[in-house]
From TrEMBL:
This is Ribosomal RNA large subunit methyltransferase F. Its EC number is 2.1.1.181. It comes from Mucilaginibacter terrenus. GO terms for biological process: rRNA base methylation. Keywords: Cytoplasm, Methyltransferase, rRNA processing, S-adenosyl-L-methionine, Transferase.
Length: 303
């Protein structure tokens, strides 16, 4: 396998043009960055190197390798059971909001720490601030209601010497999103969020089972990317969470130039459009994203 670790350069053309992960994973370089990854490399049916993506430890290890190789993040880990996100898709969100910010900057993507981004629900993994800062030099505030996740994100920031670029703030109330995080007089260029998409734990498990069955895998394999309840579902699911976010965003319209959120279900969009129209949003954009077989979208708005 040592001489077969490099994959071909087939591009994942559905990813953003600036995404560093459009090509096939170069396992030779990834193993060089993180030798521990070698323990998880297997061969697929075509005899090409890959990892077993049904194995949570393998998923976490390839994330560590990607973050180290592509973004210089030398120390990254998450507590057991927390969401371990796919890096390419997370990078796409960052690059698409960079395009949004470029529209207000004569087509040039603004870079540097004067660009401030608020990540709602930064999670134990702190992925968006890490990629956003390394790719564009932006400074981030990451809010988190779960104290274990907030502590994990802070540990990652400290371990990589990014305290001046990334500020982790504990949200003390599950009833609020921006309130309690954005300070008086504070300004942000854009906010972002990967909300809990499901309405119950049963819905999460059912979707996971359907995914494994579709892939011809054991339906009892579980959640290979992990995720705690508050990361995956909330009462009322995606529509209710987004409605609360949009309503509260109106109150902070002078603090943020743009607001944005991932939208998992296309059927959620009509209700969002209606709410934003009612709230008097001046501009609303929908950006389609696709990673492999998964399709999602980013909703962007401002007042």
């Amino acid at each position: 396998m040592a001489d077969q670790l490099s994959n071909n350069n087939t591009e994942k053309t559905n990813l953003h043009p600036r995404n560093l992960h459009r090509g096939r994973y170069d396992f030779k370089e990834l193993v060089k960055a993180l030798p521990a990854l070698r323990n998880f490399i297997i061969e697929n049916e075509q005899g090409e190197p890959t990892v077993n993506f049904t194995n949570p430890e393998a998923v976490k290890t390839i994330n560590q390798a990607l973050l180290k190789q592509s973004y210089g993040i030398a120390s990254w880990d998450i507590p057991e059971g927390f969401l371990c996100p796919p890096i390419p898709g997370r990078a796409d969100y960052i690059h698409y909001i960079a395009d949004v910010l470029a529209e207000d900057n004569q087509g040039t993507i603004p870079t540097g720490n004067s660009v401030r981004v608020l990540d709602i629900g930064v999670g134990a993994n702190c992925i968006y601030p890490l990629i956003g800062h390394k790719a564009y030099g932006w400074s981030f505030v990451g809010s988190e209601a779960d104290y274990i996740a907030a502590a994990s994100a802070k540990k990652i920031v400290d371990a990589n010497g990014l305290n001046k670029a990334i500020d982790i703030r504990k949200q003390t109330s599950y009833a609020h999103i921006f309130d309690g995080i954005i300070q008086p007089g504070e300004k942000f260029d854009i906010t972002m969020c990967n909300p809990p998409f499901h309405s119950s734990s049963k819905e999460v498990q059912a979707k996971s089972q359907r995914k494994w069955e579709k892939l011809g895998q054991d339906a009892g394999a579980g959640l290979n990317f992990g995720g705690r309840n508050n990361e995956l579902w909330c009462e009322g699911g995606e529509p209710r969470f987004l409605n609360k976010m949009m309503s509260e965003s109106k109150e902070f319209s002078k603090s943020c130039k743009w607001f944005s959120s991932l939208i998992s279900q296309k059927t959620t969009l009509p209700g969002c459009y209606k709410s934003l129209d009612y709230l008097g949003a001046a501009e609303v954009k929908t950006i389609n994203m696709s990673q492999g077989q998964k399709t999602s979208r980013i909703l962007v708005w401002r007042f």
